[in-house]
Amino acid sequence: MKGVVDDDLRALIEVSVCGEPDGEKSSVFAWIDTAFNGGLVLPRHEIDRLGLKEYSSTPAILADGQEVELPTFTCHVEWFGKEYRTQIVANEGAHPLLGTMLLDGHDLSVSYKRKTVDLI
């Protein structure tokens, strides 16, 4: 998978998601967040746009140390040619986040000089 480093120095990778198996896929550019050990976090507006169904909630500790309970939703993610049913976490942030759960088993290379992201 190929991604880019944007002008704000965020390492981004495109991820295809949908609400139902074999449903209409929608692409989001997710900010790779190696401090997040989950899979995906989507802003509430993206969840609403995709029509995802609420599943449950999960405790989380935010970057500022605040402990919160965040809703989770069911989602299908296309990842390296396969489709997976997974839970995503909702937040009020501006950007989707991709965590280390999806990076596990892969090699990540980010070149800020070339503004490229390679995930193999």
UniProtKB/TrEMBL annotation:
GO biological-process terms attached to the record: proteolysis
Keywords assigned: Hydrolase, Protease
InterPro entries: Peptidase_asp_AF0612 (IPR022274)
GO MF, any single term: peptidase activity
Protein name according to UniProt: Clan AA aspartic protease, family
Species per Swiss-Prot/TrEMBL record: Fuerstiella marisgermanici
Lineage: Bacteria, Pseudomonadati, Planctomycetota, Planctomycetia, Planctomycetales
